[in-house]
Amino acid sequence: MFGFGKRKSKLDDHQKIKLADGLADMLAMQMVFAKVDQPGVTKIEAKRGHINQKAIGYIYGFIDCALQSRREDTSDVSVSVPIVYYVMHRLFPGQEETYTDYLLGHANDEMVVLGMMKGGQQYSQFIARPGHKGVPMGLASFILDEQEKQSSKTAVR
């Protein structure tokens, strides 16, 4: 009525893929530090089917902040969901649908939200701010913390 509707994304499909590739590369660099020795277990699953909520939230928060820094409407699913899906595909081939669905269904869970806040904060602090020294390592930290928690549970048994 007054022209206050959702604005159209400034990113074309090629730019979305390029952005998603860059984000996936940045997140993959963090994951290099989190080793997983169990076959069939990805870096954000403590055991098959048990998804690390902080880690998956971190990934979303990182992506969300990147989109917001480009003044994209992150509530527009035609922008955010394909990028999340593509990043999940790059990080966890074959699990992208499972992880994207999990994220969409658990976006209000306390631990997922905590991860989102950390991911967004680290993107803003380390990536969006030119000249800042250091690298974001929150994703690696969340993965390693969960691995340590799971190994202490196994050691106690």
Write up this protein:
The structure is a single chain. This protein is mainly alpha-helical. The protein contains 6 helices and 2 strands, in the order H-E-E-H-H-H-H-H. The protein has a two-stranded antiparallel sheet. A hairpin with a 2-residue loop joins strand 1 and strand 2 (50-51). The protein is globular, with a radius of gyration of 16 Å.
Outline of this structure?
The protein has 157 residues and is mainly alpha-helical. It has helices at residues 13-31, 53-69, 77-91, 96-105, 110-127, 138-156, and strands spanning 45-47, 50-51.
What's the number of extended β-strand segments? Answer: 2
- Secondary-structure element string: HEEHHHHH
Enumerate how many helices there are, as a single number. Answer: 6
3D shape? globular
- Separation of the first and last Cα atoms: 64 Å
Class by alpha and beta content: mainly alpha
Mean pLDDT: 87
Query: What's the gyration radius in Å?
Result: 16 Å
Observed structural traits:
157 residues; mainly alpha; two-stranded antiparallel ribbon; 2 strands
Secondary structure topology:
Blueprint: H1 13-31, E1 45-47, E2 50-51, H2 53-69, H3 77-91, H4 96-105, H5 110-127, H6 138-156
Antiparallel strand pairs: 1-2
